[in-house]
Write a structure and sequence with these properties.
Helix content: 40-55%
Shape: globular
Structural class: alpha/beta
Distance between the termini: 48 Å
Strand content: 5-15%
Number of helices: 18
CATH class of the largest domain: Alpha Beta
Oligomer: single chain
């Protein structure tokens, strides 16, 4: 987009935010909702069935993956912009109440009434306009919309959560346990869990009952696993692969959180800095490969990597570039190797049968928390740029890549089942089957 176009887009966004803040502050909810509607996105599906959702990257990934199946069961999904919805609600309720585990026990009753009126009118608008029968979210504990659940169900709309959290190693488990007294039970119809461990935790804590649970696995992994399995049975490199320029992808972690354990923060930041340095040096010595440094699209992640790379600005070669946002698979499709720390992108790589590598020092730190996604038994560990280059050179050979995955096949499947609940590309069919039953129940009600 040209600079003038970006400036106009920025000005337009500012105007929309200001309009939403003003209209909700003046209790002109109908007008605010119509402004929200102009900024909705759509996920294609059955044009005769509609669902509503709050846009979030992970949820959109799963919904797009489900839409690719081309099933009559899957509805067209109208996605409300989450940032703009936040702007509306923060004009009604103080911001501190909108975080995931905030308690509303001391919220002014007048604010609560206005919040419920806004929710009711928003849902009624989309129900009337599209006849929505399902409301999608990616987490039932979001402070922003958690209290929408009973209102949604009262309008004969089924609240469905395609849960993103749930890796057995995730700190989210402890977060949920530590905050269980701040949460009411789930007030919707169905939660799709990516693995059995997290579903059992919800049942144990009394947040859900069996009827609200479906262990489906992660939908977006179906395509990755199907591609990976097809690669695994190939006996030689496909002709088109031989002419494509290969890449090495480094998935940079988010900057260490402020206010955490100081020693761990310092350790992680040092490891990331060292890894950036190693990748830059190896890229200089390997001009026939592309090196992609990938971060999330957040401002904090972009600022973090820009600060790190500026230290070596004169050393950065032409074949290394920074890629912000987007799906992991977009950068992994033609990758020779994926480098990462604590990231589900390494699971994407394993599903696609792309070898993975991790700095050895990351696993050797005694202060590492249990939340670290331990893939050390599957990862190629390196201590410096020389070892990283050796790993890259090894996997240039097709027979080395094939042998690597042949030996680790059963271990990779076990890890994928334990984490994303899916090693056979069956998640989408499980979700669509249950979703179809749910929509049918709504139609017959």
């Amino acid at each position: 987009m040209a600079p003038s176009g970006k400036l106009m887009q920025f000005a337009s966004n500012i105007l929309v935010v200001a309009s939403l803040r003003i209209t909700t502050s003046l209790h002109l909810y109908g007008l605010a909702i119509r402004i929200l509607h102009t900024r909705c996105a759509f996920v294609p599906g059955n044009p005769n069935k509609y669902a509503l959702g709050v846009s979030k990257t992970g949820l959109k990934e799963d919904l797009l993956s489900l839409s690719e199946v081309k099933s009559d069961v899957f509805p067209t999904v109208v996605l409300i912009d989450r940032f703009l919805l936040w702007q509306c609600i923060r004009s009604i309720v103080p911001v501190r109440y909108l975080y995931d585990f905030a308690t509303w026990s001391d919220l002014n009753p007048s604010c609560l009434m206005k919040y419920e009126q806004f929710a009711q009118q928003t849902l009624a608008f989309f129900k009337e306009k599209y006849g929505v029968s399902v409301f999608f979210e990616s987490n039932w504990t979001y402070g922003l919309t958690r209290r929408w659940q009973p209102i949604i169900e009262s309008l004969d709309i089924r609240h469905v959560c395609i849960l993103k959290e749930g890796l057995p190693v995730s700190t989210y488990h402890k977060t949920l346990e530590n905050n269980q007294n701040l949460l009411e039970s789930y007030g919707g119809s169905l939660i799709f869990f990516i693995n059995r461990t997290y579903a059992q935790l919800h049942l144990k804590l009394g947040f859900v009952n069996e009827a609200q649970v479906c262990v489906s696995g992660m939908a977006r992994f179906d395509e990755l696993i199907a591609i990976g399995k097809s690669r695994a049975v190939e006996t030689e490199m496909a002709p088109q692969d031989s002419v494509k320029r290969k890449s090495v992808v480094f998935f940079v972690p988010d900057p260490p959180p402020i206010g955490g354990e100081a020693e761990l923060e310092a350790h992680l930041e040092r490891r990331i800095q060292e890894c950036v340095r190693d990748v830059i040096l190896v890229a200089k010595e390997t001009p026939d490969l592309d090196f992609i440094v990938k971060t999330k699209v957040t401002a904090a992640s972009t600022e973090f990597i820009n600060t790190l790379m500026s230290s070596w600005s004169r050393e950065i070669p032409y074949n290394l570039r920074h890629h912000s946002g987007g799906l992991a698979k977009e950068t992994l499709v033609n990758a020779l190797l994926a480098i990462g720390f604590q990231t589900t992108a390494l699971l994407d790589a394993l599903a696609l049968r792309v070898p993975i590598a991790t700095p050895r020092t990351f696993y050797s730190f005694d202060g590492s928390p249990e939340s670290i996604l331990d893939l050390s038994s599957l990862s190629n560990l390196f201590s410096d740029g020389h070892e990283l280059k050796s790993i890259i050179e090894k996997f240039r050979k097709e027979n080395q890549r094939r042998d690597y995955f042949s030996v680790l096949e059963s271990q990779i499947d076990e890890v994928l089942i334990r984490t994303v609940g899916n090693c056979d590309a069956s998640s989408r069919s499980k979700i669509l089957s249950r979703l179809g039953d749910l929509i049918k129940d709504v139609s017959n009600a």
